[in-house]
Design goal:
This protein has helices at 18-25, 39-46, 58-65, 110-125, 180-192, 231-234, and strands at 2-6, 33-38, 49-51, 68-69, 81-84, 87-90, 102-104, 130-139, 146-154, 159-161, 177-179, 201-205, 238-239. It is globular, with a radius of gyration of 19 Å. The protein starts with a strand and ends with a strand. Strand 5 (81-84) and strand 6 form a beta hairpin. The protein has one domain: CofE-like (60s Ribosomal Protein L30, Chain: A), CATH 3.30.1330.100. The protein is built from 6 helices and 13 strands. It is of the alpha+beta class. The strands form 4 sheets. The protein has a 5-stranded mixed beta sheet with strand order 1-12-2-8-9. The chain has a 4-stranded antiparallel beta sheet with strand order 6-5-4-13, covered by helices on one side. A two-stranded antiparallel ribbon has the order 3-7.
Length: 242
């Protein structure tokens, strides 16, 4: 596999068109490429930015954007633990870094947006097999530091099912499925950086065992909190009424 970081101009809040940025920055894409794009620039493309000014309460904004949340904040951090778009993330993903005086929310309908961008890139580069993955940084429980996670994707099957395969001693695996987009997103986000690198796009070339598709497959990777292996730890989450 070969990861290719793509440097771009600054993408400016509160709204900036991503398509000219891709046109001027992307190298020629090839069959079987996977393109990772930060959720932040996708949100700026949609105009999902709120100016930081008097009267804007970030806590209220977080609770408005979150799908579920824990009411009590940790005494050590000024964050609210939330679920947003089937992802456990602090403060519904709302961020100020690289925001130039704006709160940047998560994109709306991320997978639909990725499909639209993918259709554009497939036509532009005359290719058939292409996948797009939206990424963000998140905190892993009981670990310092952030790592990358996918917040949406389109164009690939997300799970490599290893159930029924034998381990090195011949024992059949019963539960194991490999989460492909999150595993790859971790490396992509590492290469993107967290500060002023201006590399919001990374291309993965030559990945093996990727099954490309023209169908939406996000639902195949998400689990309802009550069915999750960490369900006992998620019981404090308050789910908002729809």
């Amino acid at each position: 596999m070969h990861f290719i970081p793509v440097k771009t101009r600054r993408i400016l809040p509160p709204k900036d068109d991503l398509y000219p940025v891709l046109d001027s920055s992307l190298p020629r894409l090839r069959e079987g490429d996977i393109v990772f794009i930060t959720s932040k620039v996708l949100a700026i493309h949609q105009g999902r930015c709120i100016k930081i000014e008097k009267g804007i309460n970030k806590r209220k904004l977080v609770l408005q954007e979150a799908d579920a949340f824990v009411e009590n904040r940790t005494p050590y951090w000024d964050f609210i633990l939330t679920i947003k778009d089937s992802t456990l993330i602090p403060s519904a993903g709302i961020d100020e870094s690289n925001g130039n005086g704006y709160y940047i929310l998560w994109p709306k309908n991320t997978n639909k947006l990725l499909k639209e961008i993918r259709d554009y890139l497939k036509k532009k580069f005359k290719i058939k097999k292409l996948a797009l993955v939206a990424t963000d940084s998140h905190a892993v429980p009981l670990r310092w530091g952030v790592s990358g996670i996918s917040t949406g994707f389109y164009g690939m099957e997300p799970l490599w099912d290893r159930r029924g395969a034998s381990d090195v001693f011949g024992r059949k695996l019963e539960y194991t499925k490999v989460n492909v987009p999150d595993a790859l997103a971790a490396t992509a986000v590492l290469l993107m950086g967290e500060a002023g690198e201006r590399t919001p796009v990374v291309i993965l070339r030559g990945a093996q065992r990727i099954q490309f598709t023209n169908k939406s497959t996000w639902h195949k990777i998400t689990i309802r909190p009550e069915k999750d292996i960490y369900a006992p730890l998620l019981r404090k989450l308050k789910v908002k009424k729809q």
